[in-house]
Design brief:
This protein has 318 residues and is of the alpha/beta class. It has 14 helices and seven strands. It starts with 16 loop residues before the first helix and ends in a 6-residue tail after the last strand.
Length: 318
């Protein structure tokens, strides 16, 4: 999402903006969807890039929707913002009825969410264990922290954040229940890891908070269906950009795009191919693109960004 330094506002520096705009430069007409509109940083730039090209923004966070609508109001009917999850993009587009010319996914947590103490996303504040991107969702971080078994916590920490000390952290969480605030959880994790880890620059609870947040919001599970729906609905020549921020996200993005670019035969391996499977997209970059040093200097939270892009192919074009 919009990753920035600063306080809990939606003022931000959209990540890898130059690279995003380069991908969509050749698309002068037709609908662009910003599936994670957040504070509308990318959306504003995309609207300014092509005066007659409409944009539809989607976000699961009601506060982001409100801010994005306000910030894009100057563009009138050219800009529309809806409340919804990005894996609902297929349904949203089918109802909308317009042909899709481009889509942007800026995955992960936004800086506004991290920097708003009451949302419970950050180890830096003392707040209730919430971490819901949509406050109306049922599952809160407190439920995971206080009710999951040790095995469930270990699996979650490993799968969502590659946490090396998952067993130690899970054991400490279990023995410290009930845990009510983010500060309590951060202190428990800090005490659980080896002293040498505590002395390093990053707070040792960052991975734990990431893992729990991903579980609360089902973040990884939503990526593949969202990208698949988007590729299916892109017109030939339409383009897709995905920004991810950790290896778990990027693995899924890479897998979906590579499968779409290679074409996946559905026939039994023992028989010749008769399904006619063909590639759906052309990768615009074979390898992941990372932010420049200059961008990271301006916006340190962009450092972990990974950029991938693809273009929809016509039938028989591959």
């Amino acid at each position: 999402m919009e990753h920035l330094a600063g306080n809990a506002t939606f003022d931000h520096l959209p990540v890898m903006l130059s690279e995003v705009l380069d991908v969509f430069e050749g698309i002068k007409e037709g609908l662009i969807v910003d599936a994670t509109v957040g504070g509308a940083g990318h959306a504003r730039a995309l609207l300014q890039q092509a005066p007659t090209r409409p944009l539809l923004g989607i976000d699961r966070d009601p506060s982001a929707v409100e801010v994005a609508r306000d910030r894009l109001a100057e563009f009138g009917r050219k800009a529309q913002v809806l409340h919804g999850r990005f894996d609902e993009i297929g349904q949203i587009l089918d109802v909308d009825g317009r042909e899709l010319h481009g889509a942007l996914f800026d995955l992960g947590v936004s800086s506004h969410q991290l920097d708003t103490p009451g949302r419970g996303f950050s180890h830096r504040y003392s707040a209730p264990l919430d971490m819901r991107m949509n406050p109306h969702d049922a599952l809160e971080a407190a439920t995971i922290v206080n009710t999951y078994s040790e095995d469930e916590l270990v699996r979650l920490l490993r799968a969502n954040s590659d946490e090396r000390f998952a067993h130690r952290i899970a054991n400490s969480i279990i023995s410290s229940r009930p845990i009510e605030t983010t500060k309590e959880l951060a202190d428990i994790v800090r005490s659980a890891v080896p002293a040498a880890v505590r002395r390093k620059g990053r707070h040792p609870a960052m991975r734990t908070f990431q893992a729990i947040r991903i579980a609360v919001n089902s973040e990884l599970a939503l990526i593949e269906p969202a990208l698949t729906q988007t590729i299916e609905r892109l017109r030939p020549g339409g383009r897709l950009v995905v920004l991810s921020y950790h290896s778990g996200e990027d693995r899924i993005v890479k897998h979906v795009l590579r499968e779409a670019a290679d074409g996946v035969c559905l026939c039994p391996s023992s028989l010749p191919c008769i399904c006619g499977s063909e590639p759906n997209v052309r990768l615009l970059r074979r390898k992941v693109v990372r932010p420049t040093t200059a961008e990271i200097d301006r916006n340190p939270r962009a450092a972990s960004a990974r950029f991938r892009a693809a273009e929809r192919l016509s039938v028989g074009e591959a």
